[in-house]
Amino acid sequence: MPPRTVPAVLSGIVAAIAFLCSIPCATAFAAEKPSSAQKYETKLDAALQLEQVLDVKVSGTSHFADVPQKDASVIATITSPHSVTEGQVQPMMTTDSMDKFGSSDGVTASEVDAFYGNWLGVTPYNLQFAPGGSALGLANALEINSKTPLTGDLTVSQFAQMVQNLKSLQDGYSETDKNEYKLLYRPSRGTFGNNGTYNVPLNVQQKNEAAAIKYMDGVQILVSGNKMTVLLPKLTGGSANDLPQVQVWASGGKYSSDKGKTWHRMSIDGYTATGPQKYYITVEGDATKGFSLTLSYTYGSTHYAVATEGAKIQTGKVVVNSF
Q1: Which pLDDT belongs to residue 2?
Q2: What is the per-residue pLDDT across 97-150, written as a single tens digit (0 to 9) for each?
Q3: Which N-terminal residues, if any, form the signal peptide (predicted)?
Q4: Distances (CA, A) of 276 to 24, 236, 238, 261
Q5: pLDDT tens profile 191-237
Q6: Bridge partners of 40?
Q7: Which residues on neighbouring strands pair with residue 321, listed in sequence order?
Q8: Closest-CA residue to 94 (of 163, 52, 159, 47)
Q9: Global confidence as pTM
Q10: Were 159 and a residue from 102, 132, 154, 274 both cysteine, which residue would form a disulfide, CB within 3.0 to 4.6 Å?
Q11: How far apart are CA 321 and CA 157, in angstroms?
Q12: Residues 6 or more apart from 184 whose CB is under 8 A from it?
C-alpha cells in the first residue's frame, strides 16, 4: 500500500473531529457528570433526618431567615440547650449566627457525632469517661462513623450511611441470619457516664467503657420458638487490679461455661462470672421473658457497672431494653 499523503492524513483528522462534534455533549461527556455520591448533604436536610431517626421531641419555634416555617420547631429544638439529671447539655446543632441557621452549609461526621452525644444527654463532664474522652471516640466505639470519612463535608451517600448506622444502633441489634441476631450496645439517654468514679484513673475508665461496648456488640442471640440461646463472648483483658465481671440473668434459664458440656440452673440472682475466661458463656431461657446482662469492673476496692442491656422476643420481633 502506498504511503498516505499529508493532505489525506489531514482529511482523516478533520473527518474524526466532525464525527465527535456530531455526538451530543451529554453523551460525549457522560462520565464527567456528577453522580448522587458526589452531591453534598446540607445542614438543614441532615438536621431533619437526624431528628427523625433519633425521634427527637420537638417544641417551640425558630425565626431563622434560612429555615422554612414548616421546619421551625425542629430547628428550634435542636439548637437549644436542654437539661438532664447531671446538668446542662449543649444544643444538638450550632447555628451560623443569631438569625441564620446555615441551612445550605455542609455537614461533617463530627457534627453528627456531636448531635448524637448531645441528644443522648452526655454532659461535658460525663463525656470525659467515654472512649477517647470525646464525642468522636464514643461515636467510633458505637460504630456510628463506620464506613464514613472523619474529615470533610459528607456526601449524600456518606451521610445516608451514618443514618443507617444510627438506625441500627437505635434498634439495639442487627439480624445476621434467620432467627439469629447480634446485640448492639445502645446507651440510655441521660445516664451515660454517670458511673464515673474518682477512685479509678480516667484512662482506665475510658478503656473499660470501650471494652464494655465491644463486649456487648459481641453478644449473639439465637431464637427457636420460645427458647432463646444467648452466646456471651469470653471476658478478656483486665488485670489483677482491674477485673472485668459479667452478670447475666434469664427467666427460667440455665447456663454453661464449658461450651455446653455441663449445664447449671440459674439462680434468682442470675450467674456472675469474673474474667479472664477460658470459654464463652452459653445461656438458655424463655425468649418471651428475655435476658439481661451487666458488665462491670473491680478496680482495687471500687466496683462499678459500665454497661447494662437485655433483650426479649415480643410479637415475633427482638425488643432491646437499655437500662
Answers
A1: 47
A2: 999 999 999 999 999 999 999 999 888 888 888 999 999 999 999 999 999 999
A3: 1-30
A4: 68, 5, 7, 20
A5: 776 666 778 888 998 999 999 999 999 999 999 988 999 999 988 87
A6: 155
A7: 310
A8: 47
A9: 0.82
A10: 154
A11: 30
A12: 143, 168, 169, 171, 172, 173, 174, 216, 217, 320
Q: How far apart are CA 186 and CA 173, in angstroms?
A: 9
Grid cell digits, residue 257? 461455661
Burial readout 11-24 (b: 16 or more C-beta within 10 A, e: otherwise): eeeeeeeeeeeeee
In one-letter notation, the amino acid at residue 101 is F
Residue found by looking up cell 420460645 in the block = 226
Grid-cell match 472485668, residue found: 244
Q: Which three cell numbers stand for residue 19?
A: 464525527
Place of cell 499523503: 5
What are the cell numbers at 310? 437485655
